[in-house]
Design goal:
It contains five helices and two strands, in the order ααααββα. By secondary structure, it is mainly alpha-helical. A hairpin with a 2-residue loop joins β1 and β2. α3 runs antiparallel to α4 and α4 runs antiparallel to α5. The radius of gyration is 20 Å and the shape is elongated. The N and C termini lie far apart (about 50 Å). About 35% of the residues are buried.
């Protein structure tokens, strides 16, 4: 399987899917994988805060509907708790920025529609999504993205890879915040 190393928009394939159900299934898989990543992000936030009573922190984190706000919350918590672990803090920031880029692709997938063209079925932005099309100038504008099920599956794999990358990072953050809490308790 080919992994995506960047959250950039994949280029349009010359041929779309023959069956629209493949795209519908790929969209469902990708969005489900994204939700799984969101749970992992909530635990990263929990670890960055050093909280020991899980439910209130998870509930507060889950209250925000914008992923960008949740990512900011992780960054703020990490800055406060990892200021003495510069290398680890930088890795957390780098991870958060990676997720931020893929959040744009998640939004494209969630808000796209399956469209039949002469080349097959693709997931594209709705025509009414003006920021996903250039201004009309006498020629029908190309959409910002136009993906097959295979391309959506690649994003799904990228979301899974982000989740997998977060596990060891969470452990390091948890260890660092536990050490800091123990030092603070002794003072």
């Amino acid at each position: 399987m080919v992994s995506i190393v960047s959250s950039n928009v994949l280029p349009k394939e010359p041929k779309g899917d023959d069956d629209p159900e493949r795209i519908f299934a790929s969209v469902g898989r990708a969005l489900t994988q994204w939700e799984s990543l969101q749970i992992t992000l909530a635990y990263l936030f929990l670890d960055a805060t050093g909280a020991t009573f899980i439910y209130p922190v998870m509930r507060a984190f889950g209250h925000s509907v914008l992923v960008s706000t949740k990512l900011d919350m992780i960054g703020y918590a990490a800055e406060a708790s990892l200021h003495f672990h510069e290398e680890l803090l930088n890795r957390v920031k780098q991870f958060v920025n990676s997720v931020r880029g893929y959040n744009d692709r998640r939004n494209d997938i969630a808000h796209g529609q399956v469209v039949r063209t002469h080349a097959g079925y693709f997931l594209m932005p709705a025509v009414g999504t003006s920021k996903k099309y250039k201004a009309f100038s006498g020629v029908v504008p190309a959409p910002a993205y136009c993906w097959t099920s295979a391309q959506i599956n690649r994003y799904c794999l990228a979301f899974a890879n982000l989740e997998n990358d977060c596990a060891p990072l969470r452990q390091e953050v948890r260890t660092a915040t536990e050490r800091y809490a123990a030092i603070e308790a002794d003072e």
